[in-house]
Amino acid sequence: MPLLNFRDPASVADPQGDRIRPGILFRSAQPDPVADVDTVGELHAHGIHVVVDLRSPDERGDDDWAAAEEAGITIVRAPIVPDDTDAIAGPGIASLRTSADLGRFYADLAASAPTAVADAVRAAAGPGAALLHCAAGKDRTGLLVALLLELAGVPDDKIADDYVRTATALPEILAALATRHHIALNDGAFGNEGDGAPGRPVVPAPLLQAPREAIEVFLETMRARHGSAEGFLLGCGVEAAAIDGFRAKAAADAALPATAAAAPRPALSVTAAPRPALSVTAAPRPAPSASPSPSRPAGEPRS
After folding, report:
1. What is the DSSP string of 223-251?
2. Fewest CB atoms within 10 Å of the CB: 53, 103, 166, 200?
3. In whole angstroms, what is the distance from residue 261 CA to residue 107 CA?
4. Helix orientation angle between 240-250 and 114-125, rounded to the nearest 10 degrees
5. Domains and CATH numbers, the chain
6. Tell me: the pLDDT tens digits for 274-283?
7. Which region, left, alpha or beta, applies to residue 132 given φ > 0 means left and ψ of -120 to 50 means alpha?
8. What is the spatial distance between Cα 148 and Cα 150, in angstroms, rounded to a whole number?
9. What distance in Å separates the CA atoms of residue 185 and residue 176, rounded to the nearest whole number?
10. What is the C-alpha R_g of the chain?
11. Is the pLDDT of residue 82 over 80?
């Protein structure tokens, strides 16, 4: 079936293509329940050569992207997960009370998974269009897309315009997640925390929404700690050549990406190396002075 929450961020963040042209970067929720022939057709129609799966091993199934791999689409597995991966409401997630809390959580989450972040950015900088997704396509996907858009020079308000678009898809996404994991989230009312009754785990309200302030605070926090998206990504181990490659790929006068007519490419599965534990007190990494900053996420429900 078609992917939920599927879109090209450039269509809202930069509709004129001044900073990032359309057709090179896509985002979505996870395949529901698995990628099928329609999903593969959707990927091919948009020239997508690589899918970056940001979910943890216990969230994904072995067959989730099997049909895409058989069709020659590369699957890069780059799990971005917090310290408290075994509970929906662990210590880090349970403390989220406001949209600003969620934004700071995104910054901590990104910093806790440098290898996965680097793998995702390298994939996005490679040939052809790339699709990034997690479970809902909101938190981990949102922070990665925000970093890439900032890298291309998209202003924060436009990055936020793309992020909040997920709100319209959340009711359908949350229903699919509840079905997949055989749980009822909270009290069943969209956007409410609920009472945590048996079978209804409490998920903090900000995680059930896509508030503009969350992605704005993420960008502000990331910039305060690392200077810019480039500074943060260099600290994660992303090579300067990959950063330059993504910017060149995003440029309005770059060659068009490969189309659906391109010959299938050999499948490749990449699994990121183990990541260090989440640390909210890590020392800031300075940003390179040569890259000016433009003006101005996992917490999805899981079993």
Report:
1. HHHHSSHHHHHHHHT--HHHHHHHHHHHS
2. 200
3. 39
4. 40
5. 10-256 (3.90.190.10)
6. 333 333 333 3
7. beta
8. 5
9. 11
10. 18
11. no
